[in-house]
Specification:
Blueprint lengths: L2 H29 L5 H39 L5 H30 L3 H4 L1 H32 L1
Length: 151
């Protein structure tokens, strides 16, 4: 593996993990009794940016290296399901994450104090944040399984 591909893979992993951490932070901050809306919105934007960076780095890595070198090794190895099930699922779930995270960030930015006073809106935003965090964790665990299938 060349230095470029290794760098893209590391960037993909680290930025994805950063997105998971910020998504968890958003959820955690929303569950607090007193919320600071702009802090939460800023965290959501950081999660969004992290997911976009991970998306671009991972897409480049996949199209230039994984598809030609790693995928054939996994699909012809002892654990072909690692790619067939988890990579395919990961690809489709991850497409949803940046957009859901952007919707969450925009909602947090433009709702003003309504999110503090409207319990239905707050519950909906918490649910969206929990869903994003859960999906991000599933995508991360899928990546770990895929990496194990490549070994």
């Amino acid at each position: 593996m060349s230095t470029l591909f290794a760098t893209l893979l590391i960037l993909h992993i680290l930025s994805g993990l950063t997105g998971v951490i910020y998504s968890f932070r958003v959820t955690f901050l929303l569950l607090k009794k007193e919320i600071v809306q702009m802090t939460i919105a800023r965290s959501a934007y950081f999660a969004f940016a992290s997911y976009i960076i991970s998306w671009v780095a991972g897409g480049w890595y996949y199209s230039k290296y994984y598809g030609n070198s790693v995928k054939p090794a996994i699909t012809s190895g002892d654990f072909p399901w690692a790619h067939i099930v988890f990579m395919e699922s990961k690809e489709h779930i991850f497409l949803f994450l940046p957009f859901a995270t952007l919707a969450l960030a925009l909602t947090l930015s433009f709702t003003g104090d309504v999110i503090i006073t409207n319990s239905r809106l707050k519950r909906a935003v918490i649910f969206l944040s929990l869903a994003i965090t859960a999906l991000a964790i599933i995508v991360t665990l899928s990546g770990i399984l895929i990496s194990g299938g490549a070994r």
